[in-house]
Amino acid sequence: MRSNSVLRLEDERPGLHQAAAWREAVAPFWTFAIRKEDLADFRGRSHVQHLGNAIFCRAGASGLRFTRERALVARMGVDHILAHVRLSGRSRIEAGGGERDCGPGDICLLDLSRPLSACSTDYEALTVVLPRGLFGAHQGGLDSLHGRVIPGASPFGRMLNDHLRALAAHAPGFSEPEAAAAAQATALLLGTAASGLPGAGPAGRDPDSAPLRLALRRFIEAELAAPDLNAETLGRRFGLSRSALYRLFVPLGGVSGYIRQRRLARAYRDLAAGGGRGARISEVAYRWGFESPAHFAQAFRAAYGHAPRDLRTRPEAPADAAPTEAWTDFYGWVLRLAA
After folding, report:
1. Which residue has the higher pLDDT, 143 or 93?
2. 3-state SS class at 206
3. What is the crossing angle of helices 231-238 and 255-272, to 10°?
4. CA distance linking residue 201 with residue 215, whole number of Å
5. Domain 209-313 adopts which CATH fold?
6. For residues 176 and 240, what is the distance between their CA atoms, to the nearest angstrom?
7. pTM tops 0.70, yes or no
8. What burial letters (b/e) apply to 91-102, b meaning 16+ CB within 10 Å?
9. Which residue intervals of the chain bear CATH 2.60.120.10?
10. Superfamily covering domain 6-201+319-336
11. Mean pLDDT, residues 60-66
């Protein structure tokens, strides 16, 4: 998809119709819930622009609770970073094992390869979605900063506010090279600000660890079906000791945990494809390296809260589905986004 493609959701009618349109527009990112008593007055609007190697959005909505559940993370299978700056309204974000408040001017960083949930008041916000690879040497710091907030009153917070507001004002006139340069500059600013946050782990301070971790993750992704994919294989392939390898994967839940997570995500997408009428569960289990269908079912239930067979009766949307005709390309924008 070329840059400067635009999607708009601008309906002046509040209520159930607008809530349904909003639900479809945000489907690649969230599911959400609105209190029954608030439904009649619900409003949501969104203006989304494709910047070639980034997606930029200005949106506003009534108060709601939104979640990115493990099932949605698995179905999409993307590895992007989302930065969200509040122009108005407040939210309480639960991500990465902690809870944080995000108010006007604050910038929240979210890892779309991990689950999260949040409660929000009525709000307006600017959001940019960037592929992880665009962050270069700052990628390692992002692994430990899911759900962290860059205070809007901090020096970098003020700079990012100015930058994102300028991006919103000028992006419609960008050429494709200008859009790509703007996305790269945004990633650089966000990565630098994130690496200086209190509590950023050693990976965030070690610029050499980020490209190595990225290479390891790419290798894992390419070899997920290999039965001998494990810490020993990675250590031999990359010349790493067991302790060095484990340190690199601490922010991702450990080596074996990360490999299992990625295999389960691939299996989920296989089972959900075609409305759950595709491959047999045992076939999918063995395809992605599980020792038995029973072991696979146990791991699947622990990750997603239901059995693999339950996908056979769920109306899961395929990863390339389009929410509405007006938003036909949005899933594709998100899935194909790359540095």
Report:
1. 93
2. coil
3. 110
4. 19
5. Arc Repressor Mutant, subunit A (1.10.10)
6. 40
7. no
8. bebebbeeebeb
9. 6-201+319-336
10. Jelly Rolls (2.60.120.10)
11. 90
